[in-house]
Amino acid sequence: MRPPVSASPIKRISIEAGCISCQLCQDIAPAVFQVDEGADCVVKPDAAGHFGPLREDIEQAARDCPVEVIKIEQG
User: Contact, 21 vs 41, CB < 8 A?
Assistant: First the structure.
């Protein structure tokens, strides 16, 4: 299990190789993550506007990702 993310603002979210397209992240934070049928997860182009208000959901999506490919960069 991954340690909790610190209180620094979220600067960037990335998805590493290995996504299994389970759609869990999209279910948790649909304004930030998109998983099209048969495709890997992507961070939506306008997601940065949601980093502050949806921080808890984004962190939950990263913690709950079964293959741990969601990376949160803080700054």
Answer: yes
